[in-house]
Design brief:
By secondary structure, the chain is mainly beta. The chain is built from three helices and 26 strands. Strand 24 and strand 25 form a beta hairpin.
Length: about 400
């Protein structure tokens, strides 16, 4: 889902209520099918330099209804307008992408070395479309960089059913979404820490990811390759959890394990251990069962992991990918992860239901890829059971 490997430019939504606040607090209306119009506006000034206006034409737009789950795939016209016909008043997750051509980059950005490379999706947030509000909704776009070859492919965190308060079977799964061998060595797995009152959230700080829970993959550089299309799981406890919880999952043969040496934790001697850089509390690798945010990052050295007050922070430029999940994915006011990494959220899972969050698949030329548009609401799907080191759709 993100960002920093090469300098390619695309356009992406950074504000989902438009350049100005366009949605008021009028009473809710009945759900009748109507036509809505959305205008895409380039807030970088690049297109205005080239064409004399900021309309974003020929952008690929995805809209997803919160109430019905209906997905609309649209393309903006020559004036930058998108028309959504026969739709209900609702909150919609929105994604828009429009790559700049080499000519647009040269004239609009002033960087001849940056060229169009491949289609990538960038987006942000939720807009509200209402039948009693007839103005055109504007959505501002900005420029960002390209995707990461490594993505978070699955997060299983809620715990299994019919096993009391059992939660030791949590895991995170990484996937190589590129066409080349990558390496997991020294890759960071970070739980995002947010304290809005102190400024530790994207609301106040878009330059760093803050964390009280940072682990690192072992290896010195090329010890742990991950092949194109390969899934790799790091489990809280690498055991067969079905022994303790019949409706859980066997994690005894996964690739890595979070083992906390300073606690009464389980250590599977056959599985390489993750390296704990810092965890402020707990006897296990702990992530939220219903709501949380995780990122993977690759720093130049551990000197780039900066101590601040009671936690660490890592510059945003080192983040490769991130995903956020909420008990109510529409409550984006609860987000703690910067929207440039993940524009919205997946989730909607309750504790001890055994459900998991997994990226959607995309197949090209017989190869499985995973969807990565920096928007977990569109990229992830909730499945009824976990699928460690494979995909539920396989």
């Amino acid at each position: 889902m993100k960002i920093i490997l090469k300098t390619f430019f695309a356009l992406f939504i950074v504000a989902f209520t438009g350049c100005d606040s366009l949605i008021d607090n009028k009473p809710a209306v009945s759900e009748r099918n109507v036509t809505f119009r959305i205008k895409l506006v380039d807030s970088t000034g690049a297109l205005k330099k080239v064409y004399g206006n900021s309309a974003v034409k020929k952008a690929e737009v995805i809209l997803k209804s919160n109430a019905l789950g209906t997905v609309y795939n649209l393309v903006s016209d020559d004036q930058g307008f998108v028309t959504l016909s026969n739709a209900i008043s609702d909150k919609y997750v929105i994604s828009a992408v429009r790559l700049l051509t080499p000519l647009e980059v040269e004239k609009g950005i002033g960087n001849k070395s940056v060229q169009e490379h491949k289609l990538v999706n960038f987006n942000a947030g939720i807009i509200e479309l209402r039948a009693d509000y007839h103005k055109v909704v504007e959505v501002c776009l900005d420029k960002v960089l390209v995707q990461s070859p490594l993505v978070i492919s699955e997060i299983y965190a809620c715990g299994p059913p019919k096993a009391g308060l059992y939660f030791h079977d949590k895991y995170i799964e990484i996937f190589n979404n590129s066409d080349e061998v990558q390496y997991l060595d020294s890759l960071l797995v970070m739980q995002v820490y947010a304290n809005v009152s102190l400024g530790f959230s994207y609301v106040n700080d878009s330059s760093f990811v803050h964390s009280k829970n940072i682990w690192m993959f072992p290896g010195t550089g090329r010890d742990y390759p991950i092949k194109p299309g390969q899934f790799v799981v790091a489990a809280g406890d690498a055991i067969d959890h079905r022994i303790n919880a019949p409706y859980s999952v066997d994690l005894s043969k996964v690739s890595f394990e979070f083992y906390k040496k300073d606690a009464p934790d389980i250590d599977n001697k056959n599985i390489p251990n993750m390296i704990m850089f810092y965890q402020s509390a707990g006897n296990d690798w702990l992530i939220g069962g219903e709501s949380d945010a995780l990122v993977i990052a690759r720093v130049g050295s551990t000197n780039d992991i900066i101590w601040e007050n009671d936690h660490y922070k890592v510059p945003m430029k080192y983040v490769l990918d991130g995903a956020e999940y909420l008990s109510d994915p529409t409550r984006l006011d609860k987000k703690k992860l910067y929207p440039g990494i993940d524009a919205s959220a997946t989730g909607g899972i309750t504790f001890y239901t055994g459900k998991t969050m997994e990226r959607l698949t995309v197949r090209k030329n017989g190869r499985l890829y995973l969807k990565d548009s920096n928007n977990s609401s569109l990229d992830f799907k909730v499945y009824s059971q976990p699928s460690p080191e494979y995909h539920n759709e396989n």
